[in-house]
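Work package 3, deliverable 3.1, input record:
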Amino acid sequence: MLKNILVALVLSVMAYMFYNAYSSYETRTELTGMSHHFASKGAEEVGAANLVTSIIVTYRGFDTLGEVTILFLTASIISFFLKLKSGDKEKIIRRDTSELLVTASQLLIPIIFMFGIYVFMNGHLTPGGGFQGGAIIATGVALMIMANPNISLNHNVIHWVESISGVSFVIIGVLGIFLAGGFLDNRMFSLGEFGDFFSAGAIPIIYSFVGLKVGAELSNILNKYQKSQKEI
Amino acid sequence: METIKLIGAIMILMGSFSLLIAVIGLLRMPDVYNRVQAGTKASTLGAIVSFIGVGLYTVESWGDGNWLGRVIILIIFILLTNPVSSHVLMRVAYFTKIPLTKLTKTDMLKKDGNTIIKEGENE
Amino acid sequence: MINPEMIIHVAVAIMGLAMFLAMIRFVKGPSVVDRVVAFDSLTVTSLVIISIIAVLSNRMIYFDVAIVYGLLSFIGVIVVAKYLKKGL
Amino acid sequence: MKTKNLIVSFTVLMIAWVLLNWTIDPVNLIIGASISIFLVVVFCSKCELFTDIKITPKAFIYTFIYLFVFIIELIKANIDITRRVLSPKLQINPGIVKVKTKLKSKMARLILADSITLTPGTFTLQVEEDVFYIHCIDTRCGDDVEKATEEIVRKFEKYLEVLYD
C-alpha cells in the first residue's frame, strides 16, 4: 500500500514537472542567430545535403569526438561491472536454437551489415549517419550472438577496429588543420557536386570511422554480456 | 499514370483489410498457437500487398528516386523474417508448456516425446 | 474519378482500428507469448503506416526508418523468445 | 563447391546494395563490390548457405514456377483464414501433425518451412532432422504421416528438389 502511494506521489510530481515544461513551451517562429547562419550558409560551406550531419561532423565535430569517447567509457564501465557478477551460481537451461533461426540469421547478418554500412556512408545525404549505422551493425552482432549461443567473438578484432577507427578520426581531424581551415574541416577534399555520393569533402570518411567505432563499442558491450552469461 | 496510382491505392486498402483480419483472428482464436497462425499469415500478406500498393502509388518517381528499391527490400525482409520470428515464438510457447486448446485433436510432438527438452535439462 | 489519396486515408483509418484491436489483445493476453504476438502485429501495421506517411509527405528517407524498425522488431521478438527460454 | 557459395553470396549482397542505392554509377558499384567482397570473406566463408544451389536454366525457370505456386498458396491461405475468422462459429480443428521431408540443404529447408508457415492452415512448430512437426488449424489426416506429407510438403518439395541438391 505504502509502495503504491509512493509510486503515485512520484508520478504526480513528474506529471507536474512535465506540465510546467509543457505550459511554458512556445514554438519559435524564427531562427536564432546561430541557427540562421547554419541554415542559410551550411549547404554551400559544407556541401552536405543533410544539414544535421554537417553540424554534427564539422561545426560541432569536436563534440562528436567527445560523444564517441563517452560511449567508449560506458562500454568499459559496463564490461567492468559485468565481470564482477560472475560469482552468482544459477542454473541456466540451455536449449539448442532452432535450425531455421540459425539459417535465417546466416542469410540476414551480411545484409544487415551491408545496410549499416550504407547508412553511415550516406550520412551526408540521408538521415542517419555514424551513430545510427553503428547501432544497426550492433543489431547484426546481437542477432549473431542470439542465433549461435556458443559463438565467441574475437575480442581482439573488436578492439582493433575500435582503436584504429578512433585514431583515424583524430588523424583526419588534425589533417584538416594543415590542409584546410581547422580541426575536422571537411574541405580538405573537394566538396563535389551537391547531393552526389562523393560530396561534402571528408564527411563520408569521418562518418564511416564514427560508425565503425560506435558499432565496435556496442558490439563490445554485447560480447561482454554474453561472456558474463557463460561464466554463470 | 492515374490508373496505376488508383490500383496502388486499392491494393493498400486491401492490405489494410488483411491486417484487420489478422487482428480479429488474434482476438477470436482460442489459444496461443491458433492466434500466432492467424496473426502471422494475414499480417504478412497484408503488409506485402500494402507495400506493393505503395510501390505502385509512387509510379511517378520510379525514374529518379529509389522508392522501388526500398519497397522491394522491405517486401523481401518481411517475407523472410516474419515466418521465422513467429516460428521461434511458437516453439517457445510450446516449450514453456502453454496448454493447447481443448479442441486439439492430435499432438504428435508429445507422442514422440520431445527430445529437445530432455537434452536441455541435462545441462 | 475517385481520388486515390482518399482511399489511402480510409486504409489508414482501418489500420488504426486494427492497431486498437491489437492493443486489446496486448492488454488482455493471458501469457507473454500472446502479448508478443499482439506486439508483432502492431509493429507490422505501423511499418505499413510509416511507409504510407513517407508516400503522403513525399519523403523517401522515411523508408529507412521503416526498414530499421522492421529489423528491430524481428530482433525484439527473438530477444523475448530467448528470455523466455532462459539463457541468452 | 566453396566458390559457388561465395559467388552467390556476393551476388545477393550486390543486389541488396544496388536496390538500396538505386543507381548503376560505376564508382558506386565499385564501392558496393568492395564492401560485398569484405562481408563475403568475413561471414560467408564459414557458412554453407548456397553450396547446394543449382545454377542451370531449368533451375531458373523453376524459381519462377515456385514463386507462382507460393503466391497462389499465400492468397489461398488468406482466404482460408478470413473465412475461418469471420464465420460466426469458429470452425477450427487444431492439432500437431508430423511430416517427413527429403531435403538436406539448409537453405531449402528454410524456404520449405517458411512456405509451410505461410500456406493455408499450417505452421512449422519444430524442425528435427528429417521430421517437421506442423501445427495445423484444421487436421484432416490425424496421425497418418504419409498422408500429411503428401498433403502439406509435396507441393513445395517437388520444386525445391530441382532448385537445391
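Chain B has one domain: 2-122.
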